[in-house]
Write a structure and sequence with these properties.
By secondary structure, this protein is α+β, with helices and mostly antiparallel strands. Among the domains are: about 120 residues, Immunoglobulin-like, CATH 2.60.40.290; about 80 residues, no CATH class. The protein has 6 helices and 14 strands. The chain has a 6-stranded antiparallel sheet. It has a 4-stranded antiparallel sheet with strand order 2-3-4-5, with no helix packed on it.
Length: about 300
C-alpha cells in the first residue's frame, strides 16, 4: 500500500477517516433503531409445579428443567430465533401504469448470531409480481395464523444454499395494484432445533412461542386493498407507535392533522380535506429528517390516494 506523506495529505486522511467513522456511527444508530423485535416472550420461573425455566443472560438462551421419568432432573436448552439482529427498510412508488413498486431491503447485521431463512409480510391482497435475488424464492401469498402474507424463503434447490448470513443484505421488489399501508414482517432464522432428551411436560412445552412468534417481527409497508379513510387512520397510528416519526411532538401534530383530514372526508368536505392534506405535505417536507421513509410514503403517497377515492 502506498504511504501517504505530507501534512496536508495526513490532515485530509484524518478528515476522511473521521467522516467515515461518523457515517458508520450514524448507520449503526439507524440500524439499532430499526431492529426487528422478538415476536413473543418466554415467562421464566416455576411452571405449574412441573418444572422451571431459566434465562441465561450471558448467551440469551433459555434452560428448561423438569423431573424425568426416573426422578432425575432433565435439562433442555432453547435458543431463540429472535437472537438474530435484523433490520428492514421499505419504500414504495407509484408507477405510470397505475401499479405500485415496493422495494424491501433486509439487513442481517454483522453481530447477528444466526442466518435468516424466511420472511413473511402480511397483506390482504396478492401481488402481481415479486422479484427476489438469486438464491431466494417467492413462495406465494399464503394464509397464516397471522393473516394472509407474502412469503419468501431461501431456495432449498439453489447451489450454493444461501440463507442470509450475518453481514449480508437481501433485496426484493413487489409489484402491486394497491397503495401502501402498514403490514407486519416476520423473520425466521436457522436457530438450532431444541433437543429434548425425553418428553417435556406439556405445561413447560406450552411456554415455547409458536410458529412465527418464535422469530422476529416489526412493522413495514405492504399493499392494502381495503384502504379507506378510516383504516388509513388506524394504520397511521400503528406507524407512529412503531416509531416512524422520531419526534413525539411532530407525531402528535401529524396525527391530529390526519384525523382532521379523515373527518373532512367522512362528511364529504373535499375542499377542507385537500387543505389539510396540503398542510400535512408541507409539514412532512419541512421535517423530513424526523420521518422514517415509510412514514413519508404513507403521508405523501397513500393518504392522497385515499382522499381521491373518497371524493369519487
Amino acid at each position: 500500500m502506498r504511504r501517504i506523506t505530507g501534512t496536508c495529505a495526513s490532515s485530509a486522511a484524518i478528515a476522511f477517516l473521521l467522516a467515515v467513522m461518523l457515517i458508520a456511527t450514524s448507520s449503526a444508530q439507524a440500524d439499532q433503531r430499526r431492529l426487528l423485535q422478538p415476536g413473543a416472550t418466554i415467562r421464566t420461573g416455576k411452571v405449574n409445579g412441573v418444572g422451571r425455566i431459566e434465562y441465561i443472560r450471558r448467551t440469551g438462551e433459555y434452560r428448561f428443567i423438569w423431573k424425568g421419568f426416573d426422578g432425575r432432573l432433565v435439562e433442555a436448552t432453547y435458543i431463540p430465533e429472535w437472537r438474530a439482529k435484523v433490520t428492514l427498510t421499505a419504500s414504495a412508488e407509484a408507477l405510470p401504469d397505475g401499479t405500485w413498486r415496493y422495494t424491501y431491503t433486509l439487513h442481517n447485521l454483522p453481530s447477528s448470531p444466526q442466518s435468516v431463512t424466511a420472511v413473511y409480510i402480511t397483506s390482504d391482497v396478492a401481488p402481481l409480481r415479486v422479484l427476489v435475488e438469486r438464491g431466494w424464492r417467492f413462495v406465494g401469498w399464503k394464509e397464516t395464523y397471522k393473516g394472509t402474507a407474502l412469503c419468501l424463503e431461501v431456495d432449498p434447490a439453489a447451489q450454493p444454499y444461501s440463507p442470509l448470513a450475518p453481514g449480508q443484505q437481501l433485496q426484493w421488489h413487489v409489484i402491486s395494484g394497491h397503495p401502501p399501508a402498514v403490514g407486519t414482517c416476520f423473520v425466521t432464522t436457522d436457530a438450532p432445533i431444541m433437543r429434548v432428551p425425553e418428553e417435556m411436560p406439556s405445561a413447560l412445552a406450552d411456554q415455547l412461542p409458536p410458529g412465527l412468534d418464535a422469530g422476529l417481527r416489526g412493522e413495514t409497508l405492504s399493499p392494502r386493498q381495503s384502504l379507506s379513510a378510516e383504516t388509513f387512520l388506524m394504520h397511521w397510528r400503528t406507524a407512529v407507535k412503531a416509531g416512524w416519526v422520531r419526534d413525539r411532538r411532530l407525531a402528535s401534530l401529524l396525527t391530529t392533522q390526519v384525523e382532521q383530514a379523515v373527518k373532512a372526508l367522512q362528511r364529504g368536505d373535499n375542499g377542507q380535506a385537500q387543505r389539510v392534506l396540503a398542510a400535512i405535505q408541507q409539514l412532512a417536507s419541512e421535517h423530513r429528517a424526523q420521518l422514517e421513509p415509510e412514514a413519508e410514503v404513507l403521508l405523501l403517497q397513500s393518504l392522497p390516494v385515499v382522499a381521491r377515492r373518497a371524493g369519487q
